[in-house]
Specification:
Blueprint lengths: L6 H8 L3 E2 L1 E6 L5 E6 L2 E5 L4 E7 L3 H8 L2 E6 L5 H9 L7 H4 L4 E3 L6 E3 L4 E13 L2 E13 L7 E2 L1
Antiparallel strand pairs: 1-11, 2-3, 2-6, 4-5, 5-10, 6-9, 7-8, 9-10
The structure holds flavin mononucleotide.
The site of flavin mononucleotide has 18 residues, from strand 3, strand 5, helix 2 and helix 3.
């Protein structure tokens, strides 16, 4: 029978399997940063939109306040080491593109990196945002999408 339970234990029971993504942002100094995220969703079909939820203490938050666009990348299994790197280190302390040896080509919207090994990429312009406790939800209008026919989607099990 369903019964009252504390939040961490209840969330632990439901949160896997989970899709994860990488969000590319542009640093205030002009170069690029990567963050591993689990909290994202599609929010509109027409116009196409994705929302990403970014902790206010993350360097990616500073980047999005400075430059109002992001690339949302869906990773392939080959990218698991990069997901770990980008989910446990801050762009304040390292260049994650160099540390993760990430190969990329420039996107079409603002030339933000599109990673060669990703299954898919959506190039988004931030059109709205809302504070959600200790995170900010950034809503992005998708201008361009990319798909790699040779790759599969990675999921955390
Ligand atoms: C599997 C996984 C999912 C994560 N999901 C999110 C998320 O949805 N939002 C967020 O702000 N941080 C999330 N994080 C934490 C950030 O990836 C992590 O704090 C990162 O080091 C922040 O990098 P930055 O300071 O360069 O922005 C996640 C980490 C992992 C490993």
């Amino acid at each position: 029978m369903i019964q009252i339970s504390d939040l961490p234990a209840t969330y632990a029971a439901v949160h896997l399997p989970a899709k994860v993504a990488l969000a590319v942002t542009q640093k205030p100094d002009g170069y690029y940063n990567l963050i591993t995220i689990e909290w994202f969703m599609r929010t509109s079909i027409q116009p196409p939109m994705f929302a990403i939820s970014i902790g206010t203490t993350r360097y990616s938050h500073d980047c999005l306040e400075a430059n109002r666009y992001f690339n949302l990348l869906f990773p392939s299994p080959e990218m698991k080491p990069l997901l770990t790197l980008c989910g446990s280190n801050s762009g304040r302390d390292m260049d994650k593109f160099i540390a993760g040896d990430a190969k990329w080509i420039p996107g079409k919207l603002h030339k933000l990196p599109v990673l060669n090994e990703a299954l898919a990429c959506f190039e988004c312009e931030v059109i709205s945002q809302v504070r959600s406790g200790d995170h900010t939800i950034y809503i992005g209008h998708v201008h361009y999408s990319w798909k790699n026919p040779d790759k599969e989607l990675f999921c955390y099990q």
